[in-house]
Amino acid sequence: MARDAVDLVVEQWARARPDFDASPMGVLGRLSRLSRIVERELKSLFAEFGLERGEFDVLATLRRAGAPEGMTAGALARASMVTSGAVTNRLDRLVAKGYVTRDVDPANRRTVVVALTSTGRDLIDRAVVAHVDNERRLLAALDRHQQDDLAATLRTLLLSLGDEADGADAADAAD
């Protein structure tokens, strides 16, 4: 069986502390390393579209919502699971690029509605296809059954740690 860098760490602990079970490091160490690799790959892909990860998340959230009238800035903040300040910064950049509009809701002048422009919609439609193709490439070492099993196992772990879906608020997790 092929070995990775995490195997070495766990084996070193086994030799240094035979009384100590370091096996959780095998799981979480690999998750951590995978997270860094995946983030690097996603950053590279999003850059091809002139986007940062957070900008992609906002565009994808608006596109998934399927509401041509847009979403409130507050709803975007909740769906993105970031602070309203972070959403404001992302929106400022996306407005400047011409990908979204940010307008006062005529029904409630205290509410700001964010919507995709046609340019933004075209961009996210292209970017999300490339994103899923990239994810497929990253998972190519696993067959579909293995991917499904891994997804189910990770879901169990996430739920055990309190990461439950809250309607649209958690929808961004899959992007």
TrEMBL record:
Domain HTH marR-type: 24-159
InterPro entries recorded: HTH_MarR-typ, Tscrpt_reg_MarR-type_CS, WH-like_DNA-bd_sf, WH_DNA-bd_sf
Keyword terms: DNA-binding, Transcription, Transcription regulation
SMART domains xrefs: HTH_MARR
Pfam family for this entry, one: MarR_2
Record's keyword annotation contains Transcription regulation: yes
Domain of life: Bacteria
Protein name: MarR family transcriptional regulator
Species in which this protein is naturally found: Actinomadura napierensis
Lineage: Bacteria, Bacillati, Actinomycetota, Actinomycetes, Streptosporangiales
